[in-house]
Design brief:
- The chain is of the alpha/beta class.
- It has two domains: about 240 residues, Aldolase class I (TIM Barrel, Alpha-Beta Barrel), CATH 3.20.20; about 60 residues, no CATH class.
- The strands form four sheets. The protein has an eight-stranded parallel β-sheet. Strands 1-14 form a two-stranded parallel sheet.
- The chain has 14 helices and 14 strands.
- It comes from Paenibacillus polymyxa (Bacillus polymyxa).
Length: about 325
C-alpha cells in the first residue's frame, strides 16, 4: 500500500523473517570477517534488525595478554548480552561434510555459543548436516547462505533444516559467487525453489535496493557494505572514508573471488591476477599479508584490500547503525 507521499508501506505483522527471528524489521547485518564486534552487533539489534557476530570479532590482545579463541568469543557474546536484550546471531563458516580442516574454530564457536545461550546462527558454505543437526538439537534458528547459490543447494539447505535462505547476488562484497548471476536474477530463482523465506543480499545500500528485493519475492535483506560505513563498525576510519570516495566503476577484481576499492595493494594484486597468476595463488598471497584485516580493520591501504559491493556510489556518509536501519526500513510498519 502507499501513503499520501507515495512511499511504499509494507506491513510487517505477517513477515515471516521477523516472526522467525523475533525482530522488528526484516534486516540482518552481514557477518563480515574482522570488522564486527559486540558494540556493532548490539547496535543493529537494538535498532530492530539482527546483528551478527562474524569471524575474528573482538580484540585478540588485552594489554600484554593474548586472549585465546574461546575466551575472545565468550567475551564478545557476554558483552552483546550486556548491551541488548534483542535477538542476535553468530556466524558459522561451515566445513565441508567429512572434512575437518576448519574443525577447531567451528567447534569452539559452536560450543561457546551453545553455552552462552545463542539461538540464532548464520551458516555460510555448503550444507553440513551434522552442524545443522547440532544447532537444531539446541533449539537454534538457522539462516543459511551458500557461497555459490543454486536452486539445488537451497533445496538441500531447506531439507536439512534451514529456517531462512540468503540468496547472494554477484553484486555483493566479501567472497564473490563463482557464477556471475546478479541479485536481480538469483533472488526470484531461489524464492521460487523453496518454501521457507528468502532474504536478499548483494548491492543493497539504500531503500531502493530493499524495495527491489521485496519486489523480487524476498522477505528480508542481508546487508554488509552499508554497515561498514557506520559509527559502530570497528573498521578503520580510513577504510570508511575510502569507501565513500570510491565508485563502483573503480572496483578491481583481485581474484575470481574477491574485489576491492582501487588502493595500492589492490592494484598490485589485480595486476598479478590479470597477468595470469591463478586466482587461488592470489588469494593465498592476500591471506598471507593479513587478508581483510590489514585493509579493512587496520586501514593500511598500501598493504590490504577493501572488499565491498558494487553499489558503493550510494554510500556518501558515515551514519549510526540505528540511522542505517531506519533509512533502509522506512517502508515498514506494524499495523494492528
Amino acid at each position: 500500500m502507499n501513503n499520501k507521499e507515495g512511499k511504499v508501506i509494507i506491513l510487517i505483522n505477517n513477515n515471516r523473517v521477523c516472526g522467525i527471528l523475533g525482530i522488528t524489521y526484516p534486516i540482518v547485518q552481514a557477518a563480515m570477517n574482522w570488522i564486527t564486534d559486540a558494540n556493532m552487533v548490539a547496535a543493529v539489534s537494538n535498532a530492530g534488525g539482527m546483528g551478527v557476530l562474524g569471524p575474528n570479532a573482538g580484540p585478540k590482545m588485552v594489554g600484554s595478554k593474548r586472549i585465546n579463541t574461546e575466551e575472545r568469543i565468550r567475551n564478545e557474546l557476554r558483552k552483546i548480552k550486556s548491551l541488548t536484550d534483542k535477538p542476535f546471531a553468530v556466524n558459522i563458516i561451515l566445513p565441508e561434510e567429512g572434512v575437518d580442516d576448519n574443525g577447531f574454530y567451528v567447534r569452539t564457536t559452536l560450543n561457546v555459543s551453545f553455552e552462552e545461550g545463542v539461538k540464532h546462527f548464520v551458516t555460510v558454505g555448503k550444507v553440513n548436516r551434522q552442524v545443522f543437526k547440532e544447532i537444531k538439537d539446541q533449539g537454534g534458528i538457522l539462516i543459511h547462505r551458500e557461497l555459490n547459490p543454486t536452486t539445488e543447494a537451497a533445496k538441500r539447505a531447506e531439507e536439512a533444516g534451514a529456517d531462512i535462505i540468503i540468496a547472494t547476488g554477484y553484486d555483493e562484497g566479501g567472497v564473490i559467487p563463482q557464477r556471475s548471476i546478479g541479485t536481480f536474477s538469483i533472488v526470484p530463482t531461489i524464492v521460487d525453489a523453496v518454501d521457507i523465506p528468502v532474504i536478499a543480499t548483494g548491492g543493497i545500500n539504500d531503500i531502493r535496493g530493499v524495495r527491489a528485493a521485496f519486489a523480487l519475492g524476498a522477505e528480508g535483506v542481508y546487508v554488509g557494505t552499508r554497515f561498514i560505513v557506520s559509527d559502530e563498525c570497528p573498521a578503520s576510519d580510513v577504510t570508511k572514508q575510502q569507501i565513500i570516495y570510491s565508485k563502483g566503476t573503480d572496483l578491481l577484481s583481485v581474484s575470481s573471488t574477491q574485489r576491492s576499492i582501487p588502493n595500492k595493494a589492490a592494484q598490485e594484486y589485480e595486476g598479478l591476477y590479470r597477468n595470469g597468476m591463478p586466482s587461488d595463488q592470489v588469494d593465498k598471497k592476500i591471506s598471507e599479508n593479513g587478508g581483510l584485516r590489514t585493509g579493512m580493520l587496520e586501514g593500511k591501504m598500501d598493504e590490504g584490500i577493501v572488499s565491498v559491493n558494487t553499489a558503493i556510489d550510494l554510500i556518501t556518509e558515515v551514519k549510526t547503525c540505528e540511522d542505517i536501519v531506519k533509512e533502509l526500513m522506512a517502508d515498514f510498519k506494524n499495523e494492528c
